[in-house]
Design brief:
CATH architecture of the largest domain: Alpha-Beta Barrel
Structural class: alpha/beta
Helix content: 40-55%
Shape: elongated
Largest sheet: 6 strands, parallel
Distance between the termini: 38 Å
Order of helices and strands: HHHEEHEEEHEHEHHEHEHEHEHE
Number of helices: 12
């Protein structure tokens, strides 16, 4: 992962999600914060200071989302200064950012902001561990569509921070003929022919294959991507040799950190796994309060 790589999320893409989360968290206000701050002197209220610290090693993701929580709550009344950027490796004990300003909004936004950045950093950290293995063999590690509803944009972004690539964003991006699509039409050939009647020239076709016979049929139909689903290492090697660069080869199913290197050595181009999202633990970050 090059240090020059830049990542960003445009505000217009994420604001609705953050606002929805804020409404969920305090649809009738924050009765605790509103009560304890009701009679505080303005000087004390406006000079609240917090450090965002990491309590374990990892890869940072979600800085802009973290900042946006406080901006949507308080505008310029809360300032956030980060000392690291998305994609940076952080070490236990590092001070990641300083948050200062109106204490009411810092208290109201802290948990949501932490939830975003902890989860996103956890995904980036897990993805980077997979990337460090696959990248040695020129293989891309990507996610799947096993996402948390209404959190997909943040999960996809975090995978990109960890490994620089993602799978299709949603059902509109690329044709993927899975086993149940094929079952509905009877054969891969029937499914591909039907799709091509309606497909834009700008979209690729991917076919999920469970065995070498299906791979042969997919090749006969000149598809763009062939997914080798739940195959053994030996089966993958045979299929890679058969495909022989005529299509992008993706391996998927039962991928773990333990068998990742072995799969990478088979010659596939891409490995997709839901584990980098669904099994990623949150990264332990926390707020420490101080006074000026």
């Amino acid at each position: 992962m090059t240090q020059k790589t830049k990542f960003w999320l445009d505000n217009f893409l994420i604001d609705d999600y953050i606002l929805s989360a804020l409404r969920e968290d305090m649809n009738f206000g924050d009765i605790t914060t509103d009560a304890i701050c009701a009679e505080l002197e303005p000087n004390k209220l406006m000079n609240f200071n917090v450090s965002l610290n990491t309590r374990q090693d990892g890869v940072l993701a979600g800085c802009d989302v973290f900042k946006r929580v406080f901006w949507l709550l308080a505008g310029d009344s809360v300032k956030v200064d980060f000392y690291f950027s998305d994609g940076d490796e952080i070490k236990k004990g590092d001070v990641i950012a300083k948050i200062f300003g109106d204490g009411r909004y810092i208290l109201k936004g802290e948990r949501l902001a932490l939830n975003f950045i902890q989860k996103m950093s956890g995904i980036a950290t897990t993805t980077r561990k997979y990337y460090d293995i696959t990248s040695k063999y020129g293989v891309r590690i990507v996610d799947t569509r096993k996402n948390t509803p209404n959190f997909r944009i943040f999960e996809k972004y975090s995978v990109k921070v960890g490994a620089n690539y993602v799978h299709r964003y949603n059902l509109s991006d690329c044709v993927m003929l899975k086993d149940n699509h094929i079952a509905l039409l009877g054969t891969i050939t029937n499914a591909v022919n039907e799709v091509r009647k309606h497909l834009s020239h700008a979209h690729k076709i991917e076919v999920e294959c469970d065995n070498i016979e299906q791979v042969k049929e997919a090749l006969e139909n000149n598809v763009d991507i062939i997914m080798l689903d739940n195959m053994t290492i030996d089966e993958m090697k045979k299929c890679v040799s058969l495909i022989n660069k005529k299509a992008i080869v993706e391996a998927s199913g039962c991928v773990t950190i333990d068998n990742l290197e072995e799969i990478s050595k088979t010659g596939v181009d891409v490995i997709s796994t839901s584990a980098i999202v669904t099994k990623a633990p949150t990264l332990d970050l926390g707020f420490d309060y101080s006074s000026m």
